[in-house]
Amino acid sequence: MDTFPLFLNLQKQHTLVVGGGDVALRKCRLLLSAGAQVQVVAPTLVAELAQWAAQGQVVWLARDYQSDDVIGQRVVIAATDDTPVNQQVFADCEARGILVNVVDNPALCRFIVPALIDRSPLQIAISTGGRAPVLARLIRTRLEALLPQGYGTLARLAGDLRDAVKARFGDNERARRRFWQSALEGPAAEQALAGDSAAAFAQLQTQLAQADDTELNRGAVYLVGAGPGNPDLLTFRALRLMQQADVVLYDNLVSPAIVDLVRRDAERIYVGKKASNHALPQQDINALLVTLAQQGKTVVRLKGGDPFIFGRGGEEIEELAQNGVPFEVVPGITSAAGASCYAGIPLTHRDHAQSVTLVTGHRREGEIELDWPRLTNPNETVVVYMGVAQAPRLCEQLISHGRAADTPAAVVQQATLPQQRVLIGTLATLPQQIAAAQIKPPALIIIGNVVSLADKLAWYRAQQTA
Ligand code: SAH
């Protein structure tokens, strides 16, 4: 983080704007709307500012800026086009520890004025650290469209009910949070958004009166598929649960960019799992899920790809079911689907492959062992998970059981992520290519005639990176 985000309470506080032009006018308007007392120092003012000064909305010092002007101010904004003056204002404030902003000059800013979506009391501030204000405004425009005005009403009503909710749940912070979660997503929200604040408030009160403690204190486990790694490929359900979690268990297939989207106050537990280096053995993970849920927590078990495709999700829910822990499984995009799309290799194709088989190259002990004769159909695509270490034996066995040595084959490492690598060859050449390029897990091997389409689809990759 380059800057520390905060919302400043400036009600009745002394603030100073240096300059009397249009930019100064905009800054004065913003400060006034936050309830600040505004002083303006400038030899002349634009008409509207002059009018505010005449009406006493701002105090005008009709002269050039002097260093002493900053004394006693909480916040100072320099909005002149005179560089030495701006520098002087910055230096004067820094010397006294006063928050200062020189408009359009990030180097001379102790704070930044963000782009703002105002549904007071709900506010969303957007900053690019002064680097790309236009981008911040673009994002603001998009969010503006997403957020109905009624959210301001909802925030105000929630504020009105806040003390009652606190009294009802006392120190039980978790139950309180769950109450708000369901209340703010329920019918009261719809009523507030529809503009009926009286009905919305009555609804919130009813929900509070009927809140069920057993329900609000109950823990649960969500086995959530996090997709192949790119955060764009999360489902909405995954993201919502990640935002509600008390604790999140994740392993190394879940990319840091995805872990970043977890609710900030949630506990994060890394449970590892690389082929041979288990940070936590599977039985311990299963037991931990049960213990955490029995403590009443909302537990999110984030799993790479889809939980039920080579994810041991089945074992985890078995343990939960045996212990009477409520659970839900949320599907994710499995890495075969992600790799296929991002490498431009369709897994099925009318002319090349009528079926696709997903297999794992990982065995509890020793060498890869698959039903080889079943994998030799030239019109079938085979996708091998956890197979790179065993690539030589895999390709050799397929060839010796009758799949053509020149069958196109690809390996896709870190599919869907910016670091994605794709190598294309044949069953005969792929093991050597994997070794030479030092391909490491996570990687998938895709075998079948569809791989030959990757070249034809090269334009597609080019478009994705353009
Ligand atoms: N449940 C996961 C699979 C877990 S097994 C899923 O549905 O995708 C782990 C294997 O998945 C890895 O060894 C690798 O073969 C594959 N994998 C997972 N993420 C991947 C990615 N981003 N790129 C390539 N392969 C990946």
TrEMBL record:
GO molecular function, one term: NAD binding
Annotated protein name in UniProt: Siroheme synthase
PANTHER family for this protein: SIROHEME SYNTHASE (PTHR45790:SF1), SIROHEME SYNTHASE-RELATED (PTHR45790)
Record EC number: 2.1.1.107, 1.3.1.76, 4.99.1.4
InterPro entries, per the entry: 4pyrrol_Mease (IPR000878), 4pyrrol_Methylase_sf (IPR035996), 4pyrrole_Mease_sub1 (IPR014777), 4pyrrole_Mease_sub2 (IPR014776), CobA/CysG_C (IPR006366), NAD(P)-bd_dom_sf (IPR036291), Siro_Cobalamin_biosynth (IPR050161), Sirohaem_synt_dimer_dom_sf (IPR037115)
Stated role: Then it catalyzes the NAD-dependent ring dehydrogenation of precorrin-2 to yield sirohydrochlorin. Finally, it catalyzes the ferrochelation of sirohydrochlorin to yield siroheme.
Pfam families hit by this protein: CysG_dimeriser, NAD_binding_7, Sirohm_synth_M, TP_methylase
Domain Siroheme synthase central residues, every copy: 119-145
Chain intervals for the UniProt region annotation (Uroporphyrinogen-III C-methyltransferase): 219-466
Residues of the active site: D251 (proton acceptor), K273 (proton donor)
Gene that this polypeptide is encoded by: cysG
Organism: Amantichitinum ursilacus
Family as reported in the entry's similarity comment: Belongs to the precorrin methyltransferase family. In the N-terminal section; belongs to the precorrin-2 dehydrogenase / sirohydrochlorin ferrochelatase family.
Positions with a binding annotation for NAD(+): D22, V23, P43, T44
